[in-house]
Amino acid sequence: MKSDWPEARRKQEHLVIRQRIRVALLEMGILAVIWAILAGFVYSMEQGHLQREVDRQLVLESQSLSKLVKVHPGSGDVLTPLDVHAIIWSKSLHIVAQYQPFPAPTLPALRHALMVHQSPLPTYYSLTVVGIPYRVRQWTVAGDRHIQVFDDIQDDQSRLATILGLFIWGGVIGLILSLVGGFLMGLWTLRPIFQVRRREQTFLSDVAHELRTPLAAINAQVELLLRHVDDPIGMHLPWIETVYSEMQRMTRLVNDLLEVGRLEEGRSALTLEPVSLRQVGEAVDSIYRPVLEEAGLELMWSIPVDAVVLADAWRLRQLLLIFLDNAKKHTQRGQITVFVVVRGNHVELHVKDTGDGMPVAKPSPGRSAHGRTIPSTGLGLVIARKIIRAHGASLAMHSLPGVGTEVVVTFRRAVRRKPSSPDAGMP
Description:
The chain contains seven helices and twelve strands. The chain is an alpha+beta fold.
């Protein structure tokens, strides 16, 4: 089963990468829509503003033309030169006068535009003459004279083209940055999900490992019993006792699994109150000292009276028993020391052994506050981590192969109204 995990992890990493890409593309699409709407709105507003300014300028130029030119039937003289192009047409669409004349080949196109936009009211439209864009104002005077006034809007068109180019390039750069940023943001947002999945894998590994041994033992003993069904039951009591023992072990495992589920609720699963670590240590010592003495190990305590934390007393007792049990498994000789250090508003609980120790492990869900890791060694440490997390405490481990291991849990300090007597001593 473990051999399949690297492949499973690779698949999960590929899945996370695909999810990050999807998130990045989604963010890029949303940004593109927002940018297109915003750019279109700003561009249309600027275009409308420029057009209104040009039309206002055409009105002023038309007024100047009306003052400078007195149109009479049959008159073809130009009275005063203007800085704009202007053409006065007769009722029969012949040119009466011109100001800043256009080349002769363009006149048919100008006459056609005049015919298309004839109206009793002033009309505005755009027209390109000799490759230059113009805004035109056209109106009729004296019932038989048509006037066209042209304003060069090439600079305005260049300005709009520049704005449009800025929007396009700004949008492209923004989309590229959003793609990169979305990919990185996807890493940040999906990291907790990936960590949860990795913790689930580790948890399932622990459960499978714990279940495999008792199931294998039960299976072997039951097979032996089936092969000797004709023998008296008393002859097979060792096999039956083994089955019973392994069943008890599986019962404890199921209870541990239920305990993990309850601790997932966090602080709501705890009964918090000011708890003296010294008193908790005394209770644990009375339970576990005989176990360690039988194994030839010494248990040392050093807990000051003012070591009081806001915690669940029963869970703290469970936590200490888990750490002591784990230390016993990895310590063949020497001693296990439990001591507490009070540092300002924090209380540090240390459990130190003289066991085998272990090399620094690869990052795992049990990452500590000091950047090291607690490797998975069964459900005991899984429950311990969840107890620590539910209390809002931090967990760290210091271990050297052949020297021993030290586990440190840091709680927030609490002040008890009625502290324990200073004369109370640890064993």
